[in-house]
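Researcher: Structure for this, please.
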Amino acid sequence: MGGIDVSQYITVFPDNATDKSVTYEISSSDSKYATVSSSGIVTAKSINGSFTVKVKSVSNPEVVATINMEAYTTLTGISKLNDMVIEGQN
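Model: Predicted structure, token format:
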């Protein structure tokens, strides 16, 4: 599986913000289910489970969005991702 690009669902406000860069992370306890790249590509591993991706503002790390996701393996052994719910805080 190539992964899901969660960066396409993230919008940094205000529009005139001088630094719109963000970081992506999965907690170490959730890393058994998936990985996330520095560009926001989430890739499932072969263990079923729910996990959270945190998206943090670089200029203000207290501004966080969380993306709740689920990884599962199909009967054919292919790892999949679903159930994306995004919650933001500003």
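Researcher: Any notable elements?
Model: Residues 67 and 86 are 4 Å apart (CA to CA). The two ends are 33 Å apart (CA to CA).
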